[in-house]
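To make the argument concrete, we let one protein speak, a sequence paired with a row of structure tokens, as a model reads it:
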Amino acid sequence: MALGNILGYSSGSTNNWHKWFPFLMTNACCEACANLKGAFLVAVVFLVMCLTITLFFAKEVPYRGNQNLPTKANGEVETEPSGPLAVLKGFKNLPTGMPSVLLVTGLTWLSWFPFILYDTDWMGREIYHGDPKGSNAQISAFDEGVRVGSFGLLLNSIVLGFSSFLIEPMCRKVGPRVVWVTSNFMVCVAMAATALISFWSLKDYHGYVQDAITASTSIKAVCLVLFAFLGVPLAILYSVPFAVTAQLAATKGGGQGLCTGVLNISIVIPQVIIALGAGPWDALFGKGNIPAFGVASGFALIGGVVGVFLLPKISKRQFRAVSAGGH
């Protein structure tokens, strides 16, 4: 997944798609439009390749109904409940410790989604002082900030990939609860840092066109370091909650799929909350992304504190890392 992110974010960080595919530019489609179409065109090609490989090389076992399924003492076939209602019913039979995992997962994703949704917009507005609806200079500044933000996400994915190899050793040494809680505190500090960096950038900005287009080199470097730093807690987020869930389900004796489905609900709900509420919340403070990032820092702090007291203890020796993403 990290490799895919690296390729995807690198496509967004370049401004040369219109040169490589000049036919994408038309009277109604400028350079920025052509760059966007070029990146999407490559994405379509990769999707077709993946689909073709799956169709031709994936070995699928045909479904045989109730054949070879375990049976009860009276001879009836023993089946697992399925469908949306099964997920809702799963809340009644969750393993011990699972409710606290769902709570901390929800708080953790509430702290992540503002940055995931608005990180490049933050670079374009607060760091490069651009405006997609402003003057030509402001539009250029915003576009440049978004491209630098995409490069920051590329660095984030590189760090994420390397950090993934360290998660299991760390969890075996200090336990998954400590690793998870530490990642929340890291996000808390990082989200608070976005406000400080934004105020620093605003202090150095005097409204000149040159300043708008060429952001301070030191501020740009700090932002890229921040993006890279967040790759570590993001790697933990993509792995540890799912591994803890699988371990709790295994302790109960099964139901990993159902527990994972319930866990995904605690991820989707925060995403909906942030998607609907972040915009109006920022508007209350005169637009910008800092209010949402400030709330994210608060959620990360709460998630870390709650995790210290409520997350279940998982055996260090039996821990196995499980990765998941794409939410």
Residues 2-57 form one domain. The chain has two domains: 2-57, 86-310. The two ends are 12 Å apart (CA to CA). Confidence is low (pLDDT under 50) at residues 208-212, 323-327.
